[in-house]
Amino acid sequence: MMVVKPLMKALGITGTLGAGPWSYRIAYAVLTFPLYSCMLLLVSSLVCRRPYFEHLLIRMWSRPLPCLFRRCSPSHN
Fold this sequence. Notes:
By secondary structure, the chain is an all-alpha fold. Helices cover 65% and strands 0% of the residues. α2 packs antiparallel against α3. The termini are far apart.
């Protein structure tokens, strides 16, 4: 939150998650998840736990983006 809200304000997107608008809600989600991943990798590297959290992030991102982490081939009918 300490990074995302000022970044959204700098981009000119204002609002709240409860009251909207939808552009704010979508931008908040799109910015929060990648920034969280980057911050998690940075902090885990500083405390020498990067391999564990790297595996955790791969699992986390393989759910919404499976083709980036697994071999995806078009289905044959």
